[in-house]
Amino acid sequence: MDRCTFQPIAPILRRVRGRTLNSAWPSLSACQPLKVAKQVAQHCSMLARQTSPRFESVSGHGVLEYWLMGRPPASNPTWLPMVLGPFSGSELKAYMTRISSEPVPEIDSEVDESFPFYHPDLGPTNIMVSDHGNSVTAISDWEAAGYFPKFLVATRPASNPAYRLIIPNTDAEKNERSKMLVEALEGMGFVCLDTAYTKWNMVKTSPA
């Protein structure tokens, strides 16, 4: 069942070789984590070539994206997903301005009306790497993929705890994996607006 449209869907699955990045991390050599981060960034750059004039899902509906949304109203059942949009760049900025007292992070899409295709859940359990750890073999969990504001591509890994490793005692510096991915994405031309986004997100005042 599609959580945005409540229409039946039929996922097509294919088995791939490899391990999740989260489980492979302890056995990677000193240079392999950065190599994997750069490959993920390259995939993001390739996906971003596909664009839409609106912030929307692949099917043209609203996006299941709580990180850009106001607080769910008390009347909304906890089991019922809430979606945001579709919005043009100016409409998204107006919405984000309305629900927070802090300035909205810069939205390129307000100017060029182009939202890149993006997988918003690139945490270490959704990245598959080869047995030897040298390459990315698959990216899973595409349910929430859609067309997002460009600033989120490099900002989300810096601000979302889901991008961190979850196996205890495998990340000497708590956010090491996230920082590597952010730097790799910046190397591909994406801009991290973590400080501006965090300030905006911390003082959201209005319901969705």
UniProtKB/TrEMBL annotation:
PROSITE patterns xrefs: PROKAR_LIPOPROTEIN
PANTHER family cross-referenced by the UniProt entry: AMINOGLYCOSIDE PHOSPHOTRANSFERASE DOMAIN-CONTAINING PROTEIN (PTHR21310:SF58), AMINOGLYCOSIDE PHOSPHOTRANSFERASE-RELATED-RELATED (PTHR21310)
Name listed for the protein in its UniProt record: Aminoglycoside phosphotransferase domain-containing protein
Domain of life: Eukaryota
Record InterPro entries: AGP_Transferase, Kinase-like_dom_sf
Organism: Lophium mytilinum
